[in-house]
Design goal:
single chain; mainly beta; 22-stranded antiparallel beta barrel; two-stranded antiparallel ribbon; 11 helices; 35 strands; disordered N terminus
Length: 784
C-alpha cells in the first residue's frame, strides 16, 4: 500500500474533516504491464519478523490480477510489547472495452498489539516517598494530591507536577536496591487492542465520450474493534504498583458506500474547463460495546482463589467462579513470605520480586451493548477547474454539502432474544423501556437531519517557466451532535419532578419559583438547553510559490498559511457547576437517595472556541547529479494558540480578574502557552547516494535527519510549560540506510539495512512516551 497526505480543503472532496486535510489511503492495483514479483523478509532489532508478498499477473489484454499480503510478528523494546498482523489484498481489473475499466478488490486485515503508553513522570518521587512512603498514608497512592499539597504549603500555585520524563521506571529489586528498569511497560500485561477489517469494493471507470469521464465506486466495509485496557502505576514506597485492569470496550460496524463522479470537459471562450459533479451516500450501523460492570474483575484463574487466606470470601469474591482448576496451595507470596489476596496480586504488585500479572485473566467476559446507531450520511459536491492565458493561469473552485440523518437507536440488547426496533418508543406497551433497555425520549429525539457545507477556491499563475505563484482559501466543517445541555428533551422531567416532590410542590431555581415540570422545561429551553450544538468549522488561507531551475536540478516550494478551527465541542465546566446550574451536584433541591441528588444532571457544552495556527513551510529537492538526491523540508509555525474560549476567561478580562489565584494561573497557561503537540520549528532532511561504478555498482546509502523544537504536552498546571514543566520534542535524530543488489542462483536479491535513531537519542515525538531507542531493520527482497 501507499499513503498520500492531502493538504488543504480536503472536505470538499472527501467529506467532513479538519482544516488541515486528510490522509488518502490507496491500495496497489493490478497493472497491464510486466511488474516483477517480490518477496520481502524483514527482521528487526527486537526479535521481530515480517513477510511481504507482491505479485502482479497480466492475465490477458483485458484482465490483470494482483495480490499483496503481509504477515508480521514483532516485539517492542518494552516488556510484553508486541504486534501481530495479517493482511491480504487480492484485486482483479477487467477492461472489456477501451472505454470501461472495472476493478474488484477485497482487503482483509487482522492485527493485535500491546504497546507502552507511559514513562517515568514522577519528578519529585523522592519527596513523595519521604512524605507518604508508608502504606496507609493519605497520599500513598496519589502523586497528584501530594503535589497539590506541596503547592499549598510553599505558596507556589504554579508549581508543575511533572518537570522531567525518563525512559522506563524505578522500583525496588529483590535485594532491596532501587533500580531503573528501561524496559518497563506501563501498559498492563495482557492489555491489548485488536482490529479486524473486511472490505470489498467495486470500481468502474468509464469514458463514453471525449467530453465525459466517470467513476462509480461501491464499498462494503465490515469492521470489529476490541480492547482490554489497563495501566500499571506506582505507589509512593518505590516498591508496590497498581496493575490496573481498567475496562474492556469495542465496536462493530458495517458500512455500505455508493459514490458517483462525473467529469465534464469543454472549451468555452478560449478557456479549458473541467467540471466535476459527484454524489456519495453511506449507510452504516455501528454498535458500541461497553464494559460489563458486573464482571469488571473475575479472579477464577488467579493463584489463591481456592485458598481461604488468599480468598476468604470464597466463590462470592470471584463473582460466581469456582476456580476449581487452581490448586488450593497455589498462592502468591510477597517478598516477606506472606500470602497475598487475589486482589492484591494486581492492586499491590511488587515488580522487583513478583511475576508480572496478566490482566486479561481477570477480564475474560464479553461486553454488553451500550449504544447502536444506523446513520445515513450523504454528500453532493461540485468542483470547477479552468486553464487560461495559454495555460499559465489555473483556477479551481469547489462546493460540497453533506447531510447526516439519524433514525432512532438500533439496539440489540440481548441477541437473539431482544432486538429493539428503532420505533419502539412509539409503542411502550409492547416495548416497555425497562424490558427492552432503551430510553423513549432519547430514541424519539434521535430522529433528526443536519447538514454542513464546505467550499474552496484557488489560483495558480506561471510567472515564468521556473516560478509559479499560487493562493487558496477554504472552509471546512465537521459534524457535532447532541444538545447544548447534553439532555434529550423528556429525559430530565424526572429530575424536575424529584425537585418538586422535595420542595412540596415548588422550588427556587435561578430566581424563579418553579411549580410544575412544564415551567421547568420552559426555563431550561430559554437557556438553550435543548438547542443542538453547532457544527465545527475551519478556515484555511495559503499563499506560496513553486520554483525550479531551468535544468530541474533544484525544485522547491515555499508557502505561508493560516489555519483556524472554530466551534469545537467542549464541556462548559463553569456552567456545569452547581453555582451556574443548581440542578447539578445539589444536596438541597433533592431528597438524599432520590433522582437528581448530588449528581451531574446537565452536561452543558459550548462551541465558542477558536484555535489558530500560522506559519511557513518550505521544501527543496536537489539533484545535482543523477545518482545523488537530497530532500529538505522545514516549517516555522510562529503562531499556535487559542484565540478565545468561552469556558475560560482570558488574562486582562473582567472575568479573569474575578478568578481565584489558581484559576488565574490555569488561564495564563492556557492562553500564553502554545497549543499541544505543535512545535515551532521542524526540519527533515534525507540524502541518498547510489554507486554507479565498480564492485559497489547499484548499492546506495542514505542519511536522514529529523529535528523538532520543544512541544507542549499539556496546557495545565501539572505540566506547566511556562514554569519548567516537562515538554516533548527538542530532538535531533539521525537515521542511516544502506542497500546492495546481488544475485543467487539466478534470482535477483536486494539487501537493505536501516539504523534508526543511530545516536540513541532519548526523545519524544509527542505526549510523554519516549520514541524508540536505537534500532535496526534488515530486509531481503527477492525479485523474479
Amino acid at each position: 500500500e501507499r499513503v498520500e497526505i492531502v493538504k488543504g480543503p480536503a472536505s470538499v472532496f472527501f467529506g467532513q474533516g479538519y482544516p488541515g486535510g486528510v490522509i488518502n489511503y490507496i491500495t496497489k492495483r493490478p497493472q497491464f504491464s510486466k511488474i516483477p514479483t517480490t518477496f520481502s523478509y524483514q527482521i528487526n532489532s527486537n526479535s521481530g519478523q515480517k513477510l511481504v508478498v507482491d505479485h502482479n499477473a497480466m492475465l490477458s489484454k483485458k484482465a490483470a490480477f494482483r495480490i499483496v499480503g503481509a504477515w508480521e510478528d514483532t516485539q517492542g523494546e518494552r516488556r510484553f510489547e508486541y504486534r501481530k498482523n495479517v493482511n491480504i489484498t487480492p484485486s482483479l481489473t477487467l477492461r472489456p472495452t477501451d472505454k470501461l475499466t472495472i476493478t474488484l478488490e477485497l482487503e482483509y486485515l487482522k492485527e493485535r498489539f500491546n504497546q507502552n503508553d507511559y514513562d517515568w513522570i514522577f519528578s519529585d518521587w523522592a519527596g513523595w516517598k519521604a512524605a507518604h512512603g508508608t502504606v496507609g498514608s493519605s497520599r500513598y497512592t496519589n502523586y497528584a494530591a501530594y503535589i497539590a499539597d506541596k503547592r499549598t504549603s510553599t505558596g507556589n500555585l504554579s508549581m508543575p507536577a511533572y518537570t522531567t520524563i525518563e525512559r522506563g521506571a524505578y522500583y525496588t529489586d529483590a535485594s532491596g536496591n532501587v533500580i531503573k528498569d528501561d524496559g518497563f511497560n506501563y501498559t498492563s500485561r495482557g492489555a491489548y487492542t485488536e482490529n479486524e477489517v473486511e472490505t470489498f469494493s467495486v470500481q468502474a471507470d468509464f469514458a463514453p465520450f471525449e467530453w465525459l469521464d466517470g467513476r462509480y465506486v461501491y464499498t462494503n466495509d465490515n469492521s470489529r474493534y476490541d480492547s482490554v485496557e489497563g495501566l500499571t502505576t506506582p505507589y509512593a514506597d518505590a516498591m508496590h504498583w497498581n496493575v490496573n485492569a481498567g475496562s474492556t470496550a469495542g465496536y462493530y460496524r458495517i458500512t455500505e458506500t455508493h459514490q458517483l463522479d462525473l467529469i465534464f470537459k469543454f472549451d468555452l471562450f478560449g478557456i479549458s474547463n473541467k467540471l466535476l459533479a459527484g454524489y456519495q451516500r453511506s449507510d452504516y450501523i455501528q454498535q458500541y460495546n461497553s464494559n460489563d460492570p458486573l464482571f469488571t474483575r473475575w479472579y477464577g484463574h488467579v493463584p489463591g482463589v481456592t485458598n481461604a487466606i488468599a480468598n476468604p470470601g470464597g466463590a462470592a469474591a470471584i463473582l460466581g467462579g469456582s476456580g476449581g482448576q487452581v490448586p488450593v496451595n497455589q498462592v502468591i507470596r510477597d517478598r516477606n513470605g506472606n500470602i497475598k489476596t487475589i486482589s492484591q496480586v494486581y492492586s499491590n504488585f511488587d515488580p522487583g520480586f513478583e511475576e508480572y500479572p496478566d490482566i486479561s485473566v481477570v477480564l475474560p467476559v464479553d461486553r454488553v451493548l451500550l449504544d447502536a446507531y444506523k446513520p445515513l450520511i450523504s454528500g453532493a459536491y461540485l468542483n470547477w477547474q479552468a486553464s487560461l492565458l495559454d495555460n499559465r493561469l489555473d483556477v479551481i473552485a469547489g462546493y460540497r454539502r453533506e447531510w447526516r440523518q439519524e433514525e432512532g437507536q438500533f439496539l440489540i440488547t440481548n441477541f437473539p432474544w431482544y432486538i429493539t426496533p428503532p420505533t419502539a418508543w412509539e409503542d411502550t406497551v409492547t416495548y416497555p423501556e425497562n424490558v427492552w433497555s432503551y430510553s423513549k425520549n432519547y430514541s424519539k429525539t434521535n430522529w433528526y437531519k443536519q447538514h454542513g457545507d464546505s467550499w474552496m477556491g484557488g489560483a495558480s499563475f506561471a510567472l515564468t517557466k521556473e516560478i509559479n505563484l499560487y493562493a487558496s482559501i477554504s472552509k471546512t466543517f465537521k459534524f457535532n451532535t447532541g444538545t447544548k445541555s447534553g439532555i434529550w428533551p423528556g429525559d430530565e422531567v424526572q429530575v424536575y419532578q424529584s425537585a418538586l416532590n422535595h420542595g412540596g410542590g415548588s422550588y427556587q431555581y435561578l430566581g424563579q419559583t418553579i411549580t410544575s415540570t412544564a415551567q421547568a422545561i420552559a426555563s431550561q429551553a430559554a437557556r438553550g438547553a435543548y438547542d443542538n450544538v453547532d457544527n465545527e468549522s475551519g478556515m484555511n488561507w495559503e499563499v506560496g510559490a513553486k520554483m525550479s531551475t531551468e535544468d530541474n536540478k533544484i525544485v522547491g516550494t515555499v508557502s505561508f498559511f493560516r489555519a483556524e478551527r472554530t466551534n469545537q465541542r467542549l464541556d462548559d465546566g463553569a456552567k456545569q457547576s452547581n453555582a451556574e446550574e443548581p440542578y447539578n451536584y445539589s444536596t438541597t433541591l433533592f431528597t438524599p437517595g432520590t433522582i437528581g441528588y448530588n449528581t451531574r444532571n446537565f452536561r452543558w457544552r459550548t462551541t465558542e472556541l477558536k484555535n489558530r495556527i500560522e506559519g511557513a513551510e518550505a521544501e527543496v529537492i536537489w539533484t545535482p547529479m543523477r545518482n545523488y538526491q537530497a530532500v529538505i523540508n522545514g516549517s516555522w509555525l510562529w503562531t499556535a494558540k487559542t484565540v478565545y474560549d468561552k469556558t475560560r476567561f482570558a488574562p486582562g478580562t473582567a472575568g479573569y480578574n474575578n478568578y481565584s489565584a489558581a484559576a488565574k494561573i490555569a488561564a495564563d497557561i492556557y492562553y500564553n502557552a502554545r497549543i499541544e503537540n505543535v512545535p515551532e520549528y521542524r526540519l527533515n532532511m534525507f540524502h541518498k547516494y547510489t554507486f554507479t561504478d565498480g564492485p559497489a555498482r547499484g548499492a546506495s546509502i542514505g542519511l536522514g535527519i529529523r529535528y523538532s523544537s520543544e512541544t507542549v504536552i499539556s496546557r495545565s498546571v501539572d505540566w506547566n510549560p511556562l514554569n519548567g514543566g516537562a515538554q516533548s520534542g527538542d530532538y535531533l535524530v539521525f537515521d542511516v540506510t544502506a542497500s546492495y543488489p546481488w544475485e543467487l542462483l539466478g534470482y535477483k536479491i536486494k539487501s537493505s539495512i536501516g539504523i534508526y535513531n543511530a545516536t540513541d537519542e532519548d526523545y519524544m515525538e509527542g505526549r510523554n512516551v519516549f520514541s524508540p531507542a536505537r534500532n535496526w531493520l534488515f530486509t531481503n527482497t527477492v525479485t523474479f
